Amino acid sequence: MGGSPVSFDAAQSGGTAAADGRPNLQHAYLLVHEPSKDGSLSAPGAQLFKLDFQFNPKELQLAKQATWKREQAKGNKKASPPQFTGSQPSKLTLELFFDASAKQDSTVVKNVEQLFSLTVPTEASMTSKKASPPWVIFRWGGLTGFLAYVSQVQAKYTLFTASGLPIRATCQVTLEELSGDAPKQNPTSGGLVPHRVHQVIAGDTLPAIAYREYGVPALWRSIAVVNDVDDPMRLRPGRRLLLPPLEEITEGSASRAAR
């Protein structure tokens, strides 16, 4: 799932062919998985369900943003060249259309509720105290999206029965990539990317914060060292923790191992 935001598999590009030689219509769908138990992005957890699109999207909108920094010096007549500090996760926005005007049943409502369920933590992750939303993968024929989570759902009901039951809806869904590019050193000065700051909320633990930040719960020790935390399981709500970049953590681990 790494590399480009959406990959095209040539082996699947043609799909299956009908008797007249024309390719069969392939519907888009979302594969919904449990998050991996160890935080690894290489293999999602068990598949929860497959969400089939009733109609294929008319368009797909991809977004990728890089972060740049310009050094400002008093008296300079020209702006300094931008310096790359990292990349933001890729985002895929698509539109789903549901229609039950022929049956006039609750299918549309159930489909919309299923979409909204993708924006909250799974029961299994809540039970293990590692609250995480479902992991999803968008697929359409030979088009395969990145491993992501649903960051936003907007639903608009546009048709109702005489009793007020919604039977038609348009939904806009945003998928956000689970893993972005690792932070890099400043290419000119060699300085590391500044630490992010996390404000502790009730129920937070260092392993849970490490899982959300790096995808690896075991990296909580590095956060503890930076912030002089004695008990990783007891954090005072409101405390601000510095979160070092992943590159800084891995380089520090390699350095200690070499000694």
UniProtKB/TrEMBL annotation:
Name the species this protein comes from: Nocardioides panacisoli
Superkingdom classification of source = Bacteria
Residues covered by the LysM domain = 196-243
Protein name stated in the entry: LysM peptidoglycan-binding domain-containing protein
Extract the Pfam families matched here.
CIS_tube
Q: Where is this region: Disordered?
A: 1-22, 67-87
